Amino acid sequence: MSGLKTIVLLSLRDYSHERLLSACAIMGLAAVLAPLLVLFGVKSGIINTMADRLIKDPRNLEITPIGSGRFSREWISQQADLPEVEFIIPQTRSIAASMILGYQNAAKKRTLAVDLIPTAKGDPLLEKWGRVPAENSDITLSASAARKLNVTTGEIISGLVGRRVGGKKEQVTINLRVVSILPVEAFMRDAAFVRLPLLEATEDYRDGFGSITFSWPGNGQPPRNRSYPSFRLYARTIYDVVIVRDRLLNQGIEVYTKAEEIEVVQNLDRSFTIIFKLISIVAVVGYFASMASNILANVNRKSRHLGVTSLIGFSTKNIIWFPIVQSITTSALGTALAVGLYFISEVTINHMFGRYLAESEYVCRLSPVHLMIAFLLTLGLSIVASGYAAFRVTRIEPSKVIRDV
Amino acid sequence: MPVTHSSLVDPQADADSKVDYGSGAEPVYELLEVSKHWKGEHGFVLKVPQLIILRGEKVALVGYSGCGKSTLLDTLAMVLRPDRVNRFTFFAAQERPLDVANAWKRKHMDILARTRMRFVGYVLQTGGLLPFLSVYDNIALSRYGLGLPEKNAVDALAAKLGIERHLKKLPGQLSVGERQRVAIARAMAHSPSVVIADEPTASLDPINAEEIMKLFIQIADENGVTLIVATHEWERVKTLGFRRIKFNLEQEKTDGNVHATVVG
């Protein structure tokens, strides 16, 4: 143990004794690593920003049928079980899926006809931008609906559903609690997101039926085997959009997707990745070769000193750490310098493009995890690069080198 | 720290250690039929038919350069493996014989390294100090390696060798003579049983050489260290109580190799 400790200290002492050469090695590493980090930062920054804007945006994952069909509850739940499907919920007839919302504040009463959109736990649109209604009387409003009603989260509004039975107008009202309001970019139209039972009850009521859940009067209960004309479906990832689309097309269901837009970004991502890999490989191979030759030259140059440590009685398995420790030190300090240079570049680049970016968007961005990976890769690479030099250390014969002047 | 591996203890050597070498003397080295062959255009063969070095003895290996002195020293220091060995036993401390020949055969190099670190000191002709360590750290090196406290030992040796004021300097800032004093201190710092020196004063002026050699021998005597010194000037050391070991050189007619046979 003392032997290894002493060799590690010797190695570090030698490293600081030859500080000029050590500094060159550190800068050599930083010169390779810093541009790679900037390149990787720009790639990940731009792609992530675009991904946030386009790829991960639930609106781009949405798949909706064109026209209307007849989808059974069973078919919907089969779709929900597919691995590519993140979320699916049936939609009732669009003509029936509406409601007149009313809000009375101090000054005056405002009313607004809105589309009702079914939602449930796991709805990516609401999970991202708002809150999913937990109760049948909960409601999430689109930005324009909330603005027109002049209502804010937490307030109670009234919902009115009307029907004409045998030439007679009837209507029911329900008190609804606004649980969240979506931002403008999430949904453009005047709409209200509610749980499916409310939508179904609304449709049934318009068909002349009553609702036990909401205590609405009517001519009996609706038939059991309901079929839905439409659905809202979200693919799990953008890569799944095409898969789900093609599967639905095979079943004769025409759908609307943003597959083309997604493809453009995916291609960009792929091209970026390939370019980055090529540059990385060239840089890594070049650096590896220069590092390995540098360490080997060092070991050859210091073979007398290493021979003397062997002569004093340090064992070979300890002495091999001499080049490895220096190599590790270079990679640690070189990475630290590269990261420093990278951060200067990152701040400069993001500042330059600042006005094109929303908050929490970046042109150049690396997470601490990325930097940690860069360090560990450099470390691993430097240990491998010192491998041959370490092997050469084991071949040093003290009697051949200790008398060299 | 177990220096001797049980399987490496030479039973023969144990028995032999009871052999009387005269007036209660004990051996440190016992070599029988050891030889090393350097191949090449000018082939060279070192032969040691028999060599026994006793504890506390001062031995001078005397001969011209190239006669095999360094080869024999490195073999005794266990850093150079001979081609043929009948017996090579190192009695590290009393009653602890190490079968070096067997350790070589089994490639137990770590055991040899540990034995060297604990029981052997080595002085080279030109310092062999590590340029990136202070004089103090150079002297303390083997004590660091052994995990021993170093302060008192280093200070005491530095005082004896007159290098106290250089302890914080790097070897590059010292004269050749001062560096040899540091090298001697380093070889002695861990209280070894044996100190091996290869022409320790050959690169010094005669006055310095004489003074440093006297200090060297004085410190060795005070500590009961067995001293093995290679020199090409027998005249310099013959009054200092050394046993002389010679190298008989002859050229083989058939292959042109020079054969050096150790006699003494």
Topology:
The complex is a heterodimer of chains A (405) and B (264).
Chain A: H1 2-17, H2 19-55, H3 58-61, E1 62-65, E2 71-72, H4 73-81, E3 85-91, E4 98-104, E5 109-119, H5 124-129, E6 138-141, H6 143-149, E7 156-165, E8 168-181, E9 191-195, H7 196-206, E10 227-228, E11 230-235, H8 238-250, E12 255-256, H9 259-301, H10 303-312, H11 316-319, H12 321-352, H13 368-385, H14 387-395, H15 398-401
Parallel strand pairs in A: 5-9, 6-8
Antiparallel strand pairs in A: 1-11, 1-12, 2-10, 3-11, 4-5, 4-7, 6-9, 7-8
Chain B: H1 11-16, E1 27-38, E2 44-54, E3 58-62, H2 69-76, E4 84-91, E5 97-99, H3 100-105, H4 109-119, E6 120-123, H5 135-146, H6 151-161, H7 176-188, E7 194-198, H8 206-222, E8 226-231, H9 234-237, E9 243-251, E10 258-263
Parallel strand pairs in B: 2-10, 3-8, 3-9, 6-7, 7-8
Antiparallel strand pairs in B: 1-2, 1-4, 4-5, 9-10
Helix pairs in contact in B: 5-7, 6-7, 7-8
Helix content estimate of chain B: 25-40%
In DSSP terms (H or I, runs of 4 or more residues), the helix count of chain A works out at 15
The H/E string of chain B reads: HEEEHEEHHEHHHEHEHEE
End-to-end span of chain B in angstroms? 34 Å
Biggest sheet of chain A: strands side by side, in what order?
A: 4-5-9-6-8-7
Into which percentage range does the β-strand content of chain A fall? Answer: 15-25%
How many domains would you count in the coordinates of chain A? 2
The proportion of strand residues of chain B reads: 25-35%
Question: For the terminal residues of chain A, how far apart are their CA atoms?
Answer: 31 Å
Order of SSEs of chain A: HHHEEHEEEHEHEEEHEEHEHHHHHHH
According to CATH, the homologous superfamily of chain B is P-loop containing nucleotide triphosphate hydrolases
Question: For the report, how would you describe the main beta sheet of chain B?
Answer: 10 strands, mixed
What is the domain total for the residues of chain B?
A: 1
Number of DSSP helices of chain B? Answer: 9
Largest protein interface, residues of each chain:
A-B, 30 and 34 residues
Cα radius of gyration of chain B in angstroms: 18 Å
Q: What's the architecture of chain B in CATH terms?
A: 3-Layer(aba) Sandwich
Q: What assembly state would you assign to the polypeptide chains in this entry?
A: heterodimer
> CATH topology of chain B, anyone?
Rossmann fold
